[in-house]
Write a structure and sequence with these properties.
Among the domains are: 222 residues, FAD/NAD(P)-binding domain (3-Layer(bba) Sandwich); 118 residues, Glutaredoxin. The protein contains twelve helices and 26 strands.
Length: 518
């Protein structure tokens, strides 16, 4: 890497919404010099996203922000699909999380969530410079870095930022993506929806259960947001337009069809939107990476649009850290799309299928296939599946019976001195090798050991509570969750990445994965 050039930052972030915020928080946490550029001074007032799950909360736990965020959220009890006649088609209750101390799902109020994240990032002021009220007008890159030109919206003054890498977090209408000549592939649905946000005045039956009113003509999303807010989403009929729902009086016609009255809520605001099913043809152009909505857009049914952007940010951030520190080759960054794109496609597919249920578009055969077989428990819904990646920075196969590519569970553990905590608190934010009753060092070749040592990896022997400890490298799995998981996947020793996905396991070899090999 050429050190003779002047760089204002290692990473420039274009856009400071949820994806840009998450990226800035990660990079600031890692001590990486970052400049974020954002048009708007204030947080966007409308709550677009409605939920976060335990995977997303685990990401924020790695930054020490999960508890602060949780205080702005409400646990989600269940989802249900019912008809306007009151017939329940199906219901999904949320089980306890396997990923940590938080519920499987939370209802959020996005402006409150972003406020917490913005305040938290102020603690990284030494490393992260956030510049509001500026519009990016050009992005030019060369073999060493990227020059980002912006215009101050107040003064009109032009300024440039020189960075080694750029994260384009500027939303679905990303001008950065357009400047790079990257096509957005897919479709935008014709049906327009009206979103009604309201403040709750009194409780009504089962308000806390996320409800999808399933109907061919007027399916409705009915969801409790956090902090006493509630939202409904109604599709407009072919003969209806935005002019038919400009005023609160007109909106009450929709709410009253569900039995909601002015005694129940006060309408706060409303907006119109269409569903997008689109993805960028590529997520990387040289030193610029598309993150969040700039790279992919999905329908809202799975509640995974904003969350996917946050996960994008965490994925690219730790990889940038390793490359900028010179510990892994620059080709590691090629695994960003290899890992994230199939995962986003999976959640997009789930969202589309949920939308078909809500709009009663499934055939009788498809509905029958969803029903549990007699005497068998219902299959676990895809939304509750544990996180995994199909390909990327991994050694060996990511087959269903392999630990490689999967996120490990997060039980309560104890360190060698008896301190009880959650697993991630003990693992830290680097690489960790875990052994089932053995110190991983004893199971590695000298070459493997040297490679993991170069990454600063820690080594921990995972013990059952009834076993005798041997020293400072011990960790006790208090309820046996982690040990059972390792054994179920035939794993005695495994290497865990900073994002808690298994990079390598002894079944397929403990050598360092080859960066840039999907």
């Amino acid at each position: 890497m050429n050190t003779t050039q002047h760089f204002d930052a290692d990473v420039a972030i274009i856009g400071y919404g949820p994806s840009g915020l998450a990226a800035a928080l990660c990079l600031g946490h890692y001590g990486i010099r970052t400049i974020a550029l954002e048009r708007d001074q204030a947080i966007y007032p409308r709550a677009r996203a409605v939920t976060v799950n335990d995977w997303t909360m685990r990401c924020f736990q790695s930054l020490g922000l999960d508890e602060e965020l949780a205080r702005t959220m409400d646990p989600t009890v269940a989802l249900r699909w019912i008809t306007h006649e009151g017939h329940q088609i199906t219901r999904m209750d949320f089980p306890p999380s396997r990923l940590g101390r938080h519920p499987t799902s939370y209802a959020i109020y996005q402006p409150a969530m972003e406020e917490v994240l913005r305040r938290a990032n102020e603690r990284h002021a030494e490393h992260v410079d956030v510049r509001y009220g500026v519009e990016v007008t050009d992005v030019v890159q060369d073999s060493e870095g990227v020059t980002v030109t912006s215009r101050d919206l107040g003064t009109g003054a032009t300024r440039t930022v020189r960075a080694r890498y750029v994260l384009a977090c500027d939303g679905g209408g990303s001008t950065t993506r357009e400047r790079l000549g990257i096509q957005l592939i897919g479709e935008t649905r014709e049906v327009k929806w009206v979103v009604i946000d309201a403040r709750v005045k009194r409780w009504w039956p089962d308000r806390h259960i996320l409800t999808f009113w399933s109907d061919k003509q007027r399916p409705v999303v009915d969801i409790a947001l956090a902090q006493g807010n509630h939202r409904w989403e109604f599709p407009l009929a072919p003969h209806e337009s935005e002019d038919d729902f400009k005023t609160h009086e007109q909106l009450w016609k929709l709410l009253s069809s569900l039995g909601v009255t002015q005694d129940d809520v006060e309408i706060h605001q409303h907006a119109f939107y269409r569903h997008h099913i689109r993805h960028a043809e590529r997520w990387r152009e040289g030193r610029v990476f598309l993150v969040g909505d700039a790279g992919h857009l999905m329908p809202p049914w799975a509640g995974s649009g904003m969350q996917s952007g946050v996960r994008d940010a965490f994925n690219i951030a730790w990889k940038l850290r390793e490359v900028l520190r010179g510990r892994l080759p620059e080709t590691l960054l090629d695994t960003y799309q290899a890992e994230r794109e199939p995962n986003v496609a999976f959640y997009t597919g789930v969202a589309i299928q949920l939308g078909r249920i809500i709009q009663q578009q499934l055939s009788d055969e498809e509905m029958a296939a969803m029903a549990p077989k007699p005497g068998e428990p219902p299959p676990e819904p895809p939304l509750l599946w544990n996180p995994w990646y199909d390909a990327g920075w991994f050694r060996g196969t990511t087959a269903p019976d392999s630990a490689v590519g999967k996120m490990i569970p997060q039980p309560r553990v104890a360190d060698a001195r008896g301190r009880l905590c959650w697993l991630d608190e003990l693992l830290g934010d680097g690489f960790v090798l875990l052994g089932d009753g053995v110190n991983p060092r004893t199971e590695l070749t000298a070459e493997e050991q040297a490679a993991w040592d170069a990454l600063g990896a820690r080594h921990l022997c995972v013990l059952a509570p009834e076993q005798q400890g041997h020293g400072s490298d011990d960790m006790v799995d208090l309820d046996g969750t982690l040990l059972a998981w390792m054994r179920r996947h035939g794993t005695r020793v495994m290497a865990v990445r900073p994002d808690r996905f298994v990079a390598a396991a002894d079944r397929s070899g403990m050598a360092l994965p080859e960066a840039g090999t999907p």
